């Protein structure tokens, strides 16, 4: 596939380069697209990298380094740029973990997905991507990502992204202390980290209506003890006692999850053993919430940082969605 003759950007060979990443950051800010050849190349390279990662990636923070945990970014590209502006861009010494829901809602989902993938290809051992409930086909059809891929690129682009989403890990364990996953905990107290390690996510492309994958992507905390029905109609809700037992059984300090708006960008619940992080400020241009992220250095202390939404071009959220009135799933 030839590169269009009017393409004025950095060329991409068989390896990702910092120069290419820096260039596409600026191209995307200016509303420019990538040649299809590069789009396919980036998605396929990252699909292969992620496919070969375990279902739960395990990482540590070495001395003098840090990892930043981000929650949902939901296609809000200019707010992602604000994170990188105030906190630094991904590098070999500054790892990032994006905890799912990169796409849908916001109208720059292609740009976020391609940039995060480019960074994953450039820094495969210090850029971590967990799957969220919106890295799934049914969500993408309703909430905009499929339509955006077709509008900006083509149908094959969405199909390749769909295949790559199925390859993404479902969780990341940081320093044997923090279990990071998009949704939350399980319907069965007997589930352990070993069960997550053993889960073959490649046998099941989409999460379905039951099972470990669905629960990892969809569940939410509640204030009452025990478990309750989900307000979403999918998954369940889990109480502080469930979180405490899981952390004690698995030797964890806390679970870190995303999946829900928090007005201050984050919330510590369940005696600080369940932490929600959400990185899409003023979600859908209407919620008025702050965004937040967590920095973790080699002392493994959680350092929260909040930030405000920034201006973006006048393209409304859900511009590519099948129905702009869909609820906040």
Q: Any overview of this molecule?
A:
There is one protein chain. The protein has one domain (18-307): Metallo-dependent phosphatases (Purple Acid Phosphatase, chain A, domain 2, 4-Layer Sandwich), CATH 3.60.21.10. The model is unreliable at 324-328 (pLDDT under 50). The relative contact order is 0.16. By secondary structure, it is of the alpha/beta class. The strands form three sheets. It has a six-stranded mixed beta sheet with strand order 1-5-6-10-12-11. The protein has a five-stranded mixed beta sheet with strand order 4-3-2-13-14, with helices on one face. Strands 7-9-8 form a three-stranded mixed beta sheet. 32% of the residues lie in helices and 18% in strands.
- Shape-level CATH architecture: 4-Layer Sandwich
CATH topology: Purple Acid Phosphatase, chain A, domain 2
Uncertain runs with pLDDT below 50, 5 residues or more?
324-328
Terminal-residue CA separation: 38 Å
Rg from alpha-carbon coordinates: 19 Å
Helical content stands at 25-40%
Structural class: alpha/beta
Q: Main sheet, how many strands, which sense, barrel?
A: 6 strands, mixed
DSSP strand count: 14
Beta-strand portion reads 15-25%
Q: What is the CATH class? A: Alpha Beta
Number of helices: 10
Instruction: Note the run of SSEs as H and E.
Output: HHEEHEHEHHHEEHHEEEHEEEEE
Q: What order do the strands of the largest sheet run in, or round the barrel if closed?
A: 1-5-6-10-12-11
**How many structural domains are formed by the residues?**
1
């Amino acid at each position: 596939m030839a590169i269009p003759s009017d393409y004025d950007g950095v060329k991409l060979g068989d390896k990702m380069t910092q120069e290419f990443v820096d260039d596409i950051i600026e191209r995307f800010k200016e509303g420019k697209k990538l040649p299809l050849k590069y789009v396919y190349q980036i998605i396929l390279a990252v699909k292969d990298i992620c496919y070969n990662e375990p279902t739960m990636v395990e990482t540590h923070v070495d001395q003098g380094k840090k990892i930043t945990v981000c929650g949902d970014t939901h296609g809000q590209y200019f707010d992602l740029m604000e994170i990188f502006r105030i906190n630094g861009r991904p590098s070999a010494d500054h790892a990032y973990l994006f905890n799912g829901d990169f796409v849908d809602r916001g109208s720059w989902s292609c740009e976020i997905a391609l940039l995060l993938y480019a960074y994953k290809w450039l820094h495969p051992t210090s850029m971590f991507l967990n799957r969220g409930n919106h890295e799934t086909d049914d969500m993408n059809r309703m909430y905009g990502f499929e339509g955006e891929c077709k509008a900006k690129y083509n149908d094959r682009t969405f199909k390749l992204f769909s295949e790559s989403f199925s390859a993404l890990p479902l969780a990341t364990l940081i320093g044997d202390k923090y279990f990071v996953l998009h949704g939350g905990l399980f319907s069965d107290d007997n589930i352990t980290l070993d069960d997550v390690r053993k889960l073959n996510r490649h046998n099941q492309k989409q999460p379905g209506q039951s099972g470990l994958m669905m629960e990892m992507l969809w569940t939410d905390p509640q204030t009452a003890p025990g478990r309750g029905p989900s307000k979403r109609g999918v998954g369940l809700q889990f109480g502080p006692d469930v979180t405490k037992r899981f952390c004690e059984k698995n030797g964890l300090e806390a679970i870190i999850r995303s999946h829900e708006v928090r007005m201050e960008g984050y919330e510590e619940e369940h005696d600080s053993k369940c932490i929600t992080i959400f990185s899409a400020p003023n979600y859908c241009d209407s919620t008025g919430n702050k965004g937040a992220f967590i920095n973790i250095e080699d002392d493994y202390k959680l350092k929260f940082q909040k930030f405000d939404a920034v201006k973006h071009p006048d393209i409304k959220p859900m511009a590519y969605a099948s129905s702009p009135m869909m609820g906040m799933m």
